[in-house]
Structure formats: structure tokens, C-alpha cells
Amino acid sequence: MEFVVNKRDFVRALSRVQSVADKKASMPILGNVLIVGDASGIRLAATDMTLAVTAHCKADVRKPGTVALPARHIFDVVKVLPEGDVTLTVEKNFSARIKSGKRRFDLSGMPGEDFPAFPDPSKVSLTQVPADDLADLIAMTQFSMSTDDTRPHLSAALFEMAGETLRVVTTDGHRLSKAERRVTGMKGASKLLIPLKAVHELKRMVDELRAEKKEAGAQGPATIGLGAASSQGPVFFQREGMTLSSKLVDAAFPSYEQVIPSATDRTVTASRTALLDALRAVSLVASDRTSGVKLAVSATRMIITSENPDIGAGMDEIDASLQGPDVTIGFNSKYLTDALSALTSDEVALELSGELDPGMIKPVGRDDYLGVIMPMRI
After folding, report:
1. Which of 62, 262, 288, 351 is most buried (most C-beta within 10 Å)?
2. Are 307 and 296 in contact (CB under 8 A)?
3. Distance in angstroms (rounded) separating the CA atoms of residues 230 and 63
4. What is the pTM of this model?
5. CATH architecture for the domain at 127-257
6. How confident is the model at residue 233 (pLDDT cuts 50, 70, 90)?
7. What is the pLDDT of residue 216?
8. 152 cis-preceded (ω within 30 degrees of 0)
């Protein structure tokens, strides 16, 4: 195989796929990037057997063929080549020579035919979802996913499609986030439990697409195709030149509707930025183990305090409006700041009941997000 490709295009395509390769897998082939060259250009692909990603790149393919090259090494060496055209030549023993200008590298490869088969999205109906909406849904929910691999049902995001509503829900057992957007043209109903790593790769795809659109000054919304082969998966996310697929988590997501309080008897309204600033300040002296802060709310103000026997104490006060009786309640400050940082509204509402009841956080003036946070005894 031999092809000539622009370095910048090659680096971009390698960047898309190399992060998915499983460098520590028991199957050596999974630590590689598959490169296939034909008349249409080159296709790069990688998989860890849960995620799979493919990227297409324009190239002058002089000799078609296929090879598997070490993911990290091929990415690193191409990045340090001079700008301009890169020539990659594969010999019969699957060693590859990569050169640009006077700089060259030789990498040992493996037969591309050893790669496992990749999921095929060609028979799946994909709904075009605005990239901006996907970015918002991920930003408002990803922080409350668990990072514990032993709890796969929590280290995942539930994507619910109901008519023209796309909803994303996450929880780590201590807090819950639910965000939704209306997607014109979406039909049917399905629930897809997508693993944490796939959500991170989807975020990369979305961020890259939005950045490219902004750089090019393109008009109209950038979109990403979303669809699943069945309720058992795999799920596909597709943009021009790139396809991401993922197996679904084979576990039951918690019945999140039962976690959301059906009614509360207190509503506190405050400036989002003022509350966020006060929480960040007061939490500096909170317990390292619990990050606990206490909110004491009356009709027109909120007093935020923290105590740490080893350090001292902190206090701040902000303007707030309370509907209902006075209340004092404790929360993990990180859980509050994560939710507040993900929102963009000027004001937020905290809906509370008793000091041991879950609290809800919502943006004022919008009904497309709510967070649930379990209280703490302080």
C-alpha cells in the first residue's frame, strides 16, 4: 500500500480514532489503528470492542491496501513531521515507512485483516440532531455520571427519544441530572444506555464539529446523525467524515422518575453567578471528605456556611427570595457548583422541602433542565 496525504488532514483523522484504541487490551490488534486505502481515499478505524470509530480522509492512493499500525506511535510521529504532504508506504512484512521532507519513520505493523469487523450504520435510520443541542445536553448532564466502572448502569447516560423530544438523564446515586431538547423530525420511542467513554467521545465529536463550523463561518446548524440498530444496539453517531458507534450498557438504569420529588413546599430564587461564587469561596474551608456546606434561607437572604475542625470556618451571604417557611439544609458543595456551572440562566430556583429531603435545582424561565441533589447532615 502507498498513499500521499496532507499532514494536517492526516493528523486530524488520526486524532479522531487513536483515543479509542485499547493500548492495554489482551488482543494486540486492538492497540492499533486500521488504515485502508482505496480509490476514495483512506479510511482510519479503531475499536476497543465496545466503542468503534472510523474517519475518512482525502488522499492520493497510489497502491490500495490495508495495514494496522500502533495507535499512539503513528499519531505521535505524524504530528512531528514537517507541514505539507506525507507519504506512507507499506512493505510486504507490514512495516510502514512514513516520511515528509527529509524526516522519516519506520513502524512495525500488523495485517489489517486481523481487525475485528466494525458495526455498519448503512442500514440504520439516523435522525439529524443539531450539534449545539447535543453539546447542551451533554454539558448539563455529564458531571453527574458515575466514574465507577463496577457500576456500569450509573457510569452511563440514558438517551431517551420520545416523539420529537430527546432527553438525557444521568445519576451517580447522590445526584441526578435531566435535560431535554426538541428535535424536529425525530420519531418513535427508544431508550439507549450509553457508556461513559462513548459520551466523552461524542463530546469530542460535537466540539470538533462546532469549532470547524465556526472557523469556516458556515451558515445553518451543524448536525450529527443519531440512531440505533435496535434496542440492544449498537448506537451510531455520524458526521461528515466520521462515524462513532458504541455498544449499549446491558443493565437497568434506575427509575429516575421516582427520584424526582413530586412536590416541594419551598422555592428559593437567587442569582446563579452570585450563588456559584459564594459556594466556591465558602467551600475552600469545607471538609475535604464531604465538601459539605450549610444553606440557611429566609425571606430575602441566603447564608452559606462551612466548618472544618482542622482549618476553621467560612461564611457568605447573598440576596435570595424564599417562598415558604425558612429552611436550613446541607449539601455537598461540589454537587451544587457542578450543576450551577453547567447552566447559563441568570437566575436559578432551588426547590426544597425538609432538611433531609432531596432538593431540586432548575433554571428560572426554562423547563428543559432539572437536577436533584441528596442532602447531607451537617
Report:
1. 351
2. no
3. 38
4. 0.93
5. Roll (3.10)
6. confident
7. 80
8. no
